[in-house]
Design a protein that fits this description.
alpha+beta, 60s Ribosomal Protein L30, Chain: A, four-stranded mixed sheet, two-stranded antiparallel sheet, 3 helices, 6 strands, 32% helix, 28% strand, globular
């Protein structure tokens, strides 16, 4: 299991901009620079956190994302119902870890994202390989659910 943080404002994956390039005579899609930079920041933080003997995960993977938001003065919300949308935040994380944490994000069989107000602003990402053994899968999932419930109750 690897746990690492990504400090800074939480960002979601922005849609690629698609247009017709008349010089190349074809349709081209370009990922926004801000999305590319944020995904590279997530990669960098993972590389800094992983053990030297880490091998790219080849089996099923569980990913937990805890997103921390700074609460603006005068904000009366008890929970951060804020941008980015949960699915776009998940996409940024999963896509950025392709090829370095796991071979492909299709290996992710369970993912959670929880948003909180707190400091410091940023992400805490947990990546865990799930063994093929069904008993281990059930125990790992139950242990994970209990662990995240305790963490959630603490916040």
């Amino acid at each position: 299991m690897i746990i690492f943080t990504v400090p800074g404002r939480v960002q979601g994956k922005a849609r690629a901009r698609t247009f017709f390039n008349s010089k190349a005579n074809k349709v081209v899609s370009v990922t926004p620079t801000q999305t590319v930079s944020y995904e590279n920041w997530i990669k960098t933080r993972f590389i800094q956190a992983k053990p030297n003997d880490f091998k790219v995960i080849e089996g099923p993977v569980l990913v937990d994302i805890k997103a921390m938001y700074r609460k603006a003065k005068g904000n009366k919300m008890s929970m951060p119902c804020l941008k980015p949308d949960a699915d776009n935040c998940i996409k940024s994380v999963l896509d950025s870890l392709n090829g370095i944490a796991y071979i492909d994000d299709k290996q992710v069989v369970a993912v959670t994202l929880r948003k909180f107000f707190g400091e410091p602003e940023g992400l805490e990402i947990t990546i865990q390989e799930i063994t093929e053994d069904k008993t281990a899968w059930i125990l790992t999932t139950l242990n994970y659910c209990l662990r995240t419930t305790v963490i959630t109750l603490q916040h």
